[in-house]
Design goal:
Layout: E1 2-6, H1 11-22, E2 26-30, H2 38-42, E3 50-53, H3 60-67, E4 74-77, H4 84-89, H5 91-112, E5 116-122, E6 133-134, H6 146-165, E7 168-174, E8 176-178, H7 186-196, E9 200-203, E10 210-211, E11 213-215, H8 216-226, E12 233-238, E13 245-246, H9 247-258, E14 264-267, E15 282-283, H10 286-289, H11 299-311
Parallel strand pairs: 1-2, 1-4, 2-3, 4-5, 5-7, 6-15, 7-12, 8-11, 9-14
Antiparallel strand pairs: 10-13
The chain binds nicotinamide-adenine-dinucleotide.
């Protein structure tokens, strides 16, 4: 199998590339390092089954021209702006890096008759559903961030290209993904700030924001297993864990792992961390669980493993 991984120098992409190479796939990575890192892919460079292109995927013509002779069997489309807060300051970031990259991938597939697509979507497309358990077939989606809007628009384009071109498409709506190589987000931020000052911690919101966190290797495992053979049409799955972790609980786990006691938490107040943030959500996971897959780490365990990794990083 010959796979194209867009965004393969990023956090999740790097783990996926590693798994695909281990499974003897040939892997082509396209990334322009807007958020990914050269060091993430350095380790693959001597592998004869690995190839890398530094291209801005938004540039549809250049992207399609460069890859037209690559004989790709499956595209794993992970490239996007993963920094929702950054995108919140400038809508063109998500228009270009999250939506236009999807258009380019679909054009590459249409022009070259590539049939298999995996797309990394997100819980952000559901918007703020308060305490409702969200299922894949929930209607009237109202994303509240540009990022969520661009992913929802991507899903719509993917659906139309799938039916117009007889594609086999799998969409996973990820929750928060964490683990080794994580570069931003609340767990990264708390760990780094507490290493600098172990007396107090400023927490955005009131600390009750509660989300499921999945360990990246659990995610990559289910991506690999479910994409070995993708059925015709579009299959959508919520992917996640049954448990969830509040922001205050994250702070507690970070303090426990760093060995700090009596840290004073200062809450900025309100029940959201920042505009565009969905403070609470929980998935209905019946569909993915019916395939026999269940994550091996709970949300709290994923947080703890991630803190163990971050605390060892150089400052
Ligand atoms: N990490 C999460 O919690 C999470 C949750 C839900 C969905 N997702 C989705 O999973 C995918 C991977 O996320 P991640 O956490 O690994 O993010 P990441 O930022 O680490 O990886 C994304 C990669 O895409 C690349 N990229 C972005 N725009 C590009 C462009 N125009 N041309 C070429 N490369 C470009 C970046 O350089 C980066 O390496 C993304 O689509 C993200 O939206 C992630």
């Amino acid at each position: 199998m010959r796979a194209l991984v867009t965004g393969g120098a990023g956090f999740i992409g790097t783990h996926l590339v590693e798994r695909l190479l281990k499974e003897k796939y040939e892997v082509i990575v396209v990334d322009n390092f807007t958020l990914g890192h050269k060091e993430n892919v350095e380790k693959f460079k001597d592998n004869k089954k690995y190839k890398f292109y530094n291209i801005n995927i938004e540039d549809t013509e250049k992207f399609c021209e460069t890859l037209k002779d690559e004989k790709i069997d499956i595209v794993y489309h992970l490239a996007a702006n993963s920094d929702i807060q950054k995108g919140g300051k400038n809508p063109s970031v998500d228009l270009n890096d999250t939506f236009m990259t999807t258009v380019s991938v679909l054009e590459l597939m249409r022009r070259n008759d590539i049939k298999n697509l995996f797309f990394s979507s997100t819980s952000a497309i559901y918007g703020d559903r308060h305490n409702t358990l969200v299922s894949e077939d929930m209607g009237l989606l109202q994303p509240i961030s540009y990022y969520g809007g661009a992913k929802y628009a991507s899903e719509s384009f993917i659906s139309s290209y799938t039916f117009m071109n007889d594609l086999n498409t799998m969409i996973f709506r990820f929750p928060n993904v964490i683990g080794p190589n994580l570069t931003h987000g609340v767990i990264y931020d708390f760990t780094k700030r507490l290493q600098e000052n172990n007396k107090e911690l400023r927490i955005l919101g009131d600390g009750t924001q509660t989300k499921p966190y999945i360990y990246v290797l659990d995610l990559v495992d289910v991506i690999f297993k479910m994409t070995k053979k993708i059925p015709k049409g579009v299959e959508i799955y919520n992917i996640g864990v049954d448990s969830a972790t509040s922001v205050t609980r994250i702070a507690d786990i970070v303090c426990e792992e760093l060995g700090y006691k009596n840290v004073k938490y200062e809450y900025t107040g309100g029940n959201v961390g920042w505009k565009g943030d969905v403070p609470k959500f929980q998935y209905n996971l019946d569909k993915i669980h019916s395939t026999g897959w269940v994550a091996t780490h709970t949300s709290d365990e994923a947080v703890r493993e991630t803190v163990k990794y971050i605390k060892k990083l150089k400052k």
